[in-house]
Amino acid sequence: MKLQSLVITFIQVAVVESITDVFGYHGGNVTLPSGASSSWNLTKIEWSIYRNNTWIATYQRKKINVDRLHSYKGRLHLDTSSGDLTIRNLKVTDATEYSVDLIDDKGRDSSNKIRLNLRKKLQKPTIQIVNSNSENGECWVKLNCSSADEGVNLTWTWHSEIFNRTSSIPGSDGSFMLRFTSTSTRQKQVTFTCSSTKDNDSASADYTLTCEDPSPPKPTPAWLVLFIGVFLGVLITLVVIYRDKIKTGCIQAKETVLKGSVI
């Protein structure tokens, strides 16, 4: 009797789940996508963290529970249509890996993993005026923009409808020189904006400059000129009228002084 041996080799294939990276900012809000198909009618949603699948938000039997974990209490919103989870007022400890398990009304299921990465929001750049000058309706200004953040890109824009730009020189160090001419007799102001950008984040600062020629000396008020004229006129008239008495008084005063000297 001949025996045949059948050797069956089982090959185990490890399925590597892809992880979706999501970025948020400390203190801001972020929405974690569940990855559910828009055609699904979800009946069960389970969001969890850690390797032991600690639930933080669930939807079962048409009931939502987003207060399962104290550290997330009051900060979660679960969209039962899409399965997406929104986290408000992000904290440093929120930067971790999240898992979501979904089931729809036809028994189809899906699982996805999302990794939340937190970034620090860019700080507002600082604008300093290096020098400026204005003459005959034409202005020169040199501004410097700097940021406390590293690796940012600094750009300049300006906002005004009453100035024509004649030349501009952007500097690689964040400085910016602009020459512009007034085209209006109204208040001559132009606002410069320095924007700091990095990845998908941005911050900006504004500086408003008034371009006016140095004010000429103010003319003497007419009422003051009239008052001085009248005063001088009255004084001259009195001198003319009483000149004899004034002359006599001066002679008498001189004689008195001479007599006092002799004594």
UniProtKB/TrEMBL annotation:
Chain ranges passing through the membrane: 222-242
Record flagged with keyword Glycosyltransferase: no
Superkingdom, taxonomy of origin: Eukaryota
Xref: InterPro entries: Ig-like_dom, Ig-like_dom_sf, Ig-like_fold, Ig_V-set
Keyword vocabulary terms for this entry: Membrane, Signal, Transmembrane, Transmembrane helix
Signal peptide limits: 1-18
The Ig-like domain, residue ranges: 125-210
Protein name (record): Ig-like domain-containing protein
Organism of provenance: Larimichthys crocea (Large yellow croaker)
